[in-house]
Amino acid sequence: MTPNLGALKTLQLNEMEMQVNKIKVAAILLPFLLTACASPSNGESNPAVQVLQGINQGLGKVKEGLEKASTTAGTAAAKESSFTGLMNTGSGEGWPRIAITIHKLPANAYAPPTTQMMGGSIPPSYCMSVSAVVWTDAKTSRTIPEEQFCPTAHIKKRWVGYSKGEFLLWAGTPAQSNHTGPKRTTGPTPPRLLFPEGSKYGNFPNSNASWLFQGLLASIGFDVAVNTGQDRRVWVVTLPGETD
Question: Rounded to the nearest 5 degrees, what angle is found at the Cα of 176, between the Cα atoms of 173 and 180?
Answer without folding.
Answer: 90
